[in-house]
Structures are given as structure tokens and as C-alpha cells.
Design goal:
Length: 802
């Protein structure tokens, strides 16, 4: 990506004479190959193909279950609504030419990095798919699979196909998140010139489009895979596979989604924070220029990073979260139904798909409830955007409670235990309350309206060191309440499930694990609206950058600053939500892993004894993995930022006219440096995450073979997964909350508190924000993806450890 020659070589006049001429870094608009092919098709041909696809989908759904037909219908409705939201957002004006030029530069940088990053990820995915194929061709089969005539080759091809489909859908989810953000940012900037509420509505609806597509794809992808396997394998017909064993064939889908999400989060996080830290250290600290100032050579790279790190990566992240939770809950539902000998187990297996279908409906209502006109009763000149978003979330929560109760009555009622559905409805209520509690706790620790962030800002007034100490202590303290909430949620849901009345043939209660699965579904029952709030943050951040670079009036910047501060809080709260859901989902995946080991080994596997030395060592290795992964992720940001700092310093030295607006910075050089560094640096921590459980499992399987412990490999991996989950949750909570609090402490001072911008307190707060950047946007988000990916790897590779 090169700057236009006419701009680069133009005669250098005063910047104020040409204050709004910016480098158009774009060469051509990039779209994935599949979209380019679809655009070339005749409209009638495309319509016929879509009708054929919909017909095939609904035929498979009707051949499987009426529940699947319902899921397909809701998902298609959500896609149609997302099209409406897209047209509504794109119909808004892009503002004056200077805004459009900056937006074009951001869009080109984001699309260029996305293309290169996902090209690298796709090559690694194909290589890993080949490895999985080779492993599965020589692995053992479960007795049920052998009885159904499912050979090794068929099992291998099914798993590889599911893995590649999961990876593809996760990549599309990431692209959708980035696509909408790079088009909505300039429209939010333009709307901010008129009113804060209009800018808020555009940002929310743009985020809503991405959220509906991401959640809808996760649901419909699993539903299509399930119905395809059901029809193709003749499930439940004489001599064929039982429907309760079918969910085990879907684990490859979750692994593919996790694989892409991890590398997307790592690469995007390294990109965005490497550019951000480099831009802040030289621009704010050394040169004393404002954030997003057009004189900073790294400012375009910083704004590009918001899109590839916070939007594209978060879309893939939430897609993976929902996919992993659905698959693990389907496995546990099928296992429980088989133990209880429930006559029609399809309701227990397909329940997660229905819950997330209702999520699409209620989140759509919540998104559309945010209007563009301010309430006349509001007396303040600008209504608090957080209050508006909170109203939408409260409405979504109320609807979630109602639809969740209806879903449990519809699908989980059984004559064997007539009141079981009510117990599971209470489990869902526990999950919904847990989600709300996580959002509130994260908001309390990261919003500058509350005491913790204000105390952190006050510590900045006595220097850089006290700011760092206060931020670290705040992050450490913030782990306590979430852990207590998770603990209460797991125990409550397990107890409610165990007392549901569902028992096996020996009279032993069997609903406990499924109760925790239902609680996890309850927590994620508003996932689409939560993702909407998350996407709102980087879109608002980009809008503020465009306003600053295009030198709009201060009143416009005040509106985007307010939206940006709220966006920081929503990003922190949704990260807390993601960690809480990751904790519950990892517990489900751990339980599903133990069920799968039991199925393959044909022996009970219900507990892991850490008093066995090898098993304890597995736990230590799992804990070490979290710390080592975090260290490598943060170090990657540091090395990338050093390259940016050196480049920005070089430009300020070699082009002294930049500070007087007489010379143009070379934005494209910083973009190229950050993109190259992010792609290079994401490989090592990603490879560590993938290889560790496989190597540990195989090594201890061999050791167990020679020491007469046949399940040692599986036990050590289970211990590794258990300890990594516990350490990962605590580490991610610490990193995300500390980073978000440092950021908003800086924002609080910039409102005029404690001396305002340029004061000594502000300089110390900038240091804290710089330290917190790799915490909250690289290491923290990557860790909660890591712990779910470890669980999906162990599910896929379980036969290798036996």
C-alpha cells in the first residue's frame, strides 16, 4: 500500500491551506473470492441458486426434526434483518471529503491486513486438517460407531469436513465484523456533527448487523451439519447410529472455529496494540500532540487496528464461544438422555440451537429499540449513551427470561420427570443473572463514574509509579467478585439439575452436568446484543479518530469522546461477559471430554486424581501454559511497538515540517511495519497453544503404556485442561479489567479532572494506558479463546491419548 504520488510529491504549502487533504492509500476495494463470484452472477441466476439452497436446507431440516426447521427459519429471518440494517447504515451520509479520504485509508489498511492474515491462517488450517485426517485414519472408534458401521475413513472425513467448515464460518464471521466497522465509522463521525443520539444509533445498528450475522452463522452452521449427518448416515434407522451419539461428530466444527479465533485474536491484538502503543509513546508522550492527531505517522495504523483487532477478532471470538457451547451442551444432553432412556431425546440435544435462535429474535428487538431521536424528557444536552445501551440490554434480558422459560417447557418436558423442565428453566435463570452480574461487575471496575477508576486516576497525580501500582492492584482485586459469581452459578445450576428428577437405571440423579450446560446457555442467551455493544466500542473509537484527523469543531469531538469512553466500558464489560461464558463453557467441554474418553475407552472416567504425580504435573504444565502464552503475547506487542516508535521518531527527525503541518507523514510505512510484525509474531504463541495438549497427551500415553496405566495420557490432559482453565480465567479477568481501568482513568482526566490534558497526572495516566493496552486487547482476550481451544483440541484428539 503506497501513498498517492501526487500527494507524496506535491509542493508543500501550509497545512492549514490544505488542512483536509489526506493520502488515499487505497488501490482497489478487496472482497473475498466468494463475494466477487456472487457479484458477477446474474440476479435471476443468483435468486434461483438461493432458492435451491434454501429448499435443500429446509428439506434436510424437515427430514431431521421440526425443531431444525424452526431454527433455519429464525436464522434466515435474522439474515434478512441484518440486510435491512446494512442498507439503513449505508444510506447515511459519509460526511465531507476529508472524512471520506481518511475512512478510505483505514478501510484499505484493514482489508489488506485481513486478506494477508487470513491467507496465512487458511494455509495453517489446511495443514492441520491434513494432520487430523492422518490421525483419525489410525485412531480407535467408539463401540457405538463400530456398531453403526462408521469406519475410520468415514469418521476422519467427517471430522476434517467439520473442522474446515468451522474454520471457514469463523473466518467469515471475522470478515463481517471488519466489513461493517470500516464502513460505519465515517457515518458515525458525520452523524456526530448533528447529534449524539444519531451517532449512537448508527454505531449500534452497525454493530447489530455484525452480531446477528455472527450468531446466526454459528447456529445455522451447526444445524446444517447436524441435519446433513442425520440424513446422510440414516441416524436412528435400524442398524444405524443413535441420535444421542451424533453430537460427537460435530467436535471438529468447534475446533475449527477455535483455531481461527485464536489466530485472529492474536494477530489482530498484536496489530492494534503495537500501533496504539507506538503512536502514544511518541505522539502523546514525546511530542505532546493529541490522540489521533494527523501529524502522527502511526495514526492510520492505530485506527486500522481498531477494526482488525476489536471487530474482526471479536466476531470470530464470539462465533467460537457460541459454537463450542452449543456442541458441548448437545453432547451432554445426548449423554443424559441416553442414561435416562428418554424416549425422544431430540429436544435435549437440539435445545441449545433453539435458545440461540430466540437470542437472535430478542436481541433484534433490543437493537431496534434504540431510536435516533432523543426523549423529550431528557434535560441534559447530551443523553448518556451508556444509559441508552443499558435500557436496550435490560429489555433483552427480560425477553430472554420469557423465551428461555418457554423453550424449556417446549423441549425439556418429559413424562419421566414432569417437573424437570422447571428446574432447567431455573438453571437458565441462574445463567442470565450471572451474565447480568458479570456486565455490572465489569462496568463497576472500568467505568470512570465509579470509585475504582477514579481512585486509579487520583493515583496518577502522584506519578507514573503509583499509577501502575494502583492499576495492578485494581486488576487483582477485580478477580474476586467474578470468581464468586461463577462458583455460585456452577454449584446452583448443578444442584438444580441434579434435583430435576431425571435418574438413570440405577436411580442415580444425572441432570447435574446438563443443568450447568443450561446455565451456560442462559448466560449466552443475549449474546447477540452483547456483541452489538462490543462492536459499538471500536466503531466509536474510529469515529473519534476520523473527527480528530479531519479537524472538526471541538463540539463534534466532545460527542465522539463521550461515545469512545462509553465504548471502552462496553468493550470491558463484554470481555468480562466473554470470560464468564468461557469459564462455564470450558467446564462443559471438560465434562464432554470425560464423556468422550469413557465412550472410546469403554470404561468409566468420572474423576481426575491430582494426587497421582503425573496428573499433578499435567496441572502444573497447564498453569505454566497460561503464563507463558501471556508473556509471549505481551512481548509480541512490545516488539511491534518498538518498531513503530523507531519509525515514527525517524519521520519526525527526517521530516521536521510534519509538526508545522508543512510535510505529510508517511502513514503507509507504519501500516506496513505493523502488519508484517503482527503476522510474524502471532505464530509462536499460537503454535504453543495448539501443540502443548497434543504433545503432553502423547508423551504421557506412551509413559502410561510402559508403566501399566492405560488412561494416563487422558488423565494428564484432563488435569492440564482443568488447571489451565482456572488460571486462564483469573489471568484474563486481571488483564482485561486492569487494562480497561487504565484506559478510562486516562479518559476521566481528559474530561478536565486532576488538571486535564497535558497535566502531570495525564502523563502518568498515559503511561498506565500504554501498559494496559497489550493486557486488555491482546493477551486478555486471547487467553479466554485459548482455554476454549484447549478444550476443543482435547475433544478432537481424545482417541489419540488412549
Amino acid at each position: 500500500m503506497m501513498m498517492d504520488e501526487d500527494i507524496e510529491q506535491a509542493s508543500l504549502m501550509s497545512f492549514n491551506d490544505r488542512p483536509r487533504a489526506f493520502p488515499n492509500m487505497r488501490s482497489k476495494t478487496y472482497s473475498p473470492l466468494i463475494f466477487r463470484i456472487l457479484r458477477k452472477l446474474n440476479v435471476r441466476v443468483l435468486s434461483i441458486l438461493l432458492l435451491l439452497c434454501f429448499g435443500a436446507i429446509f428439506y434436510m431440516g424437515a427430514s431431521t426434526s421440526p425443531i431444525i426447521v424452526f431454527v433455519f427459519a429464525v436464522c434466515i429471518f435474522s439474515f434478512l434483518l441484518s440486510v435491512y440494517l446494512t442498507k439503513w447504515v449505508l444510506a447515511k451520509d459519509e460526511g465531507p471529503p476529508e472524512m471520506v479520504q481518511i475512512s478510505d485509508a483505514i478501510r484499505d489498511g484493514a482489508e489488506g491486513f485481513f486478506r494477508t492474515q487470513y491467507s496465512t491462517i487458511s494455509k495453517m488450517a489446511i495443514l492441520l486438517a491434513f494432520v487430523i485426517l492422518c490421525i483419525y485414519l489410525f485412531r480407535n472408534l467408539t463401540p457405538q460407531q463400530e456398531a453403526a458401521g462408521l469406519g475410520r475413513a468415514m469418521s476422519a472425513y467427517i471430522t476434517v469436513a467439520a473442522f474446515l467448515l468451522g474454520a471457514l464460518c469463523s473466518g467469515i464471521a471475522g470478515y463481517v465484523g471488519m466489513w461493517v466497522s470500516v464502513r460505519a465509522n465515517v457515518r458515525v463521525s458525520s452523524a456526530a456533527r448533528r447529534s449524539a443520539r444519531e451517532a449512537l444509533q448508527i454505531a449500534v445498528r452497525a454493530g447489530g448487523f455484525s452480531a446477528l450475522v455472527v450468531v446466526g452463522m454459528a447456529v445455522i452452521g451447526i444445524a446444517i451439519l447436524y441435519s446433513t449427518f442425520y440424513v446422510w448416515l440414516g441416524v436412528d434407522s435400524p442398524g444405524a447410529m443413535n441420535v444421542t451419539d451424533l453430537p460427537l461428530l460435530l467436535v471438529g466444527y468447534g475446533f475449527g472455529a477455535s483455531f481461527v479465533a485464536l489466530f485472529a485474536q492474536l494477530g489482530g491484538g498484536i496489530y492494534t496494540k503495537g500501533a496504539d502503543v507506538g503512536a502514544d509513546l511518541v505522539g502523546k508522550v514525546e511530542q505532546g500532540i493529541p490522540e489521533d492527531d494527523p501529524r502522527n505517522p502511526a495514526v492510520i495504523a492505530d485506527l486500522v487496528g481498531d477494526n482488525v483487532g476489536d471487530c474482526a477478532a471479536r466476531g470470530a471470538d464470539l462465533f467460537e464461544s457460541i459454537a463450542a457451547e452449543i456442541i458441548s451442551a448437545m453432547i451432554l444432553g445426548g449423554t443424559m438422555a441416553k442414561k435416562c432412556k428418554i424416549e425422544d431425546p431430540s429436544g435435549f440435544i437440539l435445545f441449545p440451537l433453539v435458545v440461540h435462535s430466540f437470542d437472535l429474535v430478542i436481541s433484534s428487538i433490543g437493537i431496534l429499540s434504540i431510536k435516533g431521536t432523543r426523549d423529550a424528557s431528557v434535560k441534559s444536552p447530551v443523553e448518556d449513551p451508556m444509559a441508552v445501551l443499558q435500557k436496550g440490554y435490560s429489555l433483552t434480558i427480560i425477553l430472554a427470561v420469557l423465551t428461555f422459560g418457554a423453550s424449556t417447557r417446549w423441549l425439556l418436558y418429559t413424562e419421566q420427570a414432569p417437573s424437570a423442565w422447571f428446574s432447567f428453566a431455573l438453571c437458565g435463570l441462574v445463567g442470565i443473572i450471572t451474565a447480568y452480574a458479570f456486565v455490572w461487575i465489569s462496568k463497576y471496575y472500568t467505568d470512570y463514574k465509579h470509585e475504582p477508576v477514579r481512585t486509579l486516576a487520583l493515583a496518577s497525580s502522584t506519578g507514573h509509579g503509583t499509577n501502575i501500582i494502583a492499576g495492578v492492584s485494581l486488576g487483582l482485586e477485580s478477580t474476586a467478585l467474578p470468581v464468586l459469581v461463577i462458583s455460585v452459578a456452577i454449584i446452583s445450576a448443578y444442584w438444580l439439575g441434579n434435583t430435576s428428577g431425571l435418574v438413570d437405571e440405577n436411580g442415580t440423579p444425572t441432570g447435574g452436568l446438563f443443568g450447568t450446560a443450561v446455565a451456560t446457555m442462559g448466560m449466552l442467551s443475549t449474546a447477540a446484543y452483547v456483541l452489538t455493544m462490543d462492536m459499538f466500542g471500536p466503531i466509536a473509537d474510529n469515529a473519534g479518530g476520523i473527527v480528530e484527523m479531519s479537524q472538526q469543531p471541538e463540539s463534534v469531538r466532545e460527542i465522539t469522546d463521550l461515545l469512545d469512553a462509553v465504548g471502552n466500558t462496553t468493550k470491558a464489560t463484554t470481555k468480562g461477559f466473554a470470560i464468564g461464558s468461557a469459564a462455564l463453557a470450558s467446564f462443559l467441554l471438560f465434562s464432554a471430554y470425560m464423556d468422550e474418553v469413557s465412550a472410546f475407552a469403554n470404561v468409566p472416567f468420572k474423576e481426575v486424581d491430582i494426587a497421582i504425580p503425573e496428573v499433578f504435573v499435567g496441572g502444573l504444565l497447564g498453569s505454566m501454559l497460561i503464563f507463558l502464552f501471556s508473556a509471549w503475547a505481551c512481548a509480541a506487542v512490545g516488539r511491534t511497538a518498538q518498531e513503530v516508535v523507531n519509525e515514527v521518531r525517524r519521520q519526525f527527525i527526517e521530516r521536521p515540517g510534519i509538526m508545522e503541518y508543512k510535510e505529510k507523514p508517511d502513514y503507509s510505512r507504519c501500516v506496513a511495519i505493523v502488519a508484517s510484525a503482527a503476522l510474524r509474531e502471532m505464530i509462536k504463541p499460537g503454535a504453543l497453544a495448539i501443540a502443548s495438549p497434543i504433545v503432553v497427551g502423547i508423551v504421557f500415553r506412551i509413559l502410561g503404556y510402559y508403566t501399566g496405566q492405560p488412561l494416563l495420557g487422558a488423565k494428564v490432559v484432563a488435569s492440564m485442561l482443568m488447571f489451565a482453565t482456572v488460571c486462564g480465567i483469573l489471568m484474563a479477568l486481571f488483564l482485561n479489567t486492569a487494562g480497561g481501568a487504565w484506559d478510562n482513568a486516562k479518559k476521566y482526566i481528559e474530561t478536565g479532572a486532576l488538571g486535564g490534558k497535558g497535566s502531570e497526572a495525564h502523563k502518568a495516566a498515559v503511561t498506565g494506558d500504554t501498559v494496559g493496552d497489550p493486557f486488555k486487547d491482546t493477551a486478555g482476550p486471547s487467553i479466554h479463546v485459548l482455554i476454549k481451544m484447549l478444550a476443543t483440541i482435547t475433544l478432537v484428539m481424545a482417541p489419540v491419548f488412549l
